[in-house]
Please model this.
Amino acid sequence: MPGHPTPWSRYGDLFQPEAQAASGLGQAKLGIGENGSTAVLSEAKLEQGSKKLGRNSVARIAGVDLPRDKRIEIGLTYIYGIGLSRSKEILAKTGVNPDVRVKDLADSDVSKLREVVENDYQIEGDLRRWENMNIKRLMDIGCYRGRRHRAGLPVRGQRTRTNARTRRGRRVAIAGKKKAPKK
Model:
């Protein structure tokens, strides 16, 4: 059928109607930015070299796509290991305005942020691995906290006679336990 994608086209293939293809109007290329983000760019955009992030591109720092419509101060908190105070600290180090939206960041700002985050802080996979190693160490030495982790019970002194359902799971009925008959 003319003007429609072929049945063997794959997900991610760029669709271009025949009329556009013949005239050369819709020629688009897949651009890959410095930060590893991808976007469909027109020829003019490729030659020009945009200062801001492309319309379809996403700021990607430490393997996490930051939400485009949030302020960068909040967007950085989507990275595991970065909270609001650490986000403010990172923005002060790099000199990036915390009120700028992620979609309005310049490529140079994104690269500065990426460099500081990845070099100066332990985040994402490294942080998770470090935490899991610490818990495993506690279980291996057999201390009280390690035994509580192993048993799946609360570690920090909370009561378990009632509550603690998050760690212990759903209630299980005890079979054979009946109330005494009334006389």
About this structure: Helices lie at 18-23, 43-48, 72-75, 84-94, 107-120, 124-141, 144-151, 165-168. The chain has two domains: 27-121, 122-155. Residues 41-50 have pLDDT under 50 and may be disordered. The radius of gyration is 27 Å.
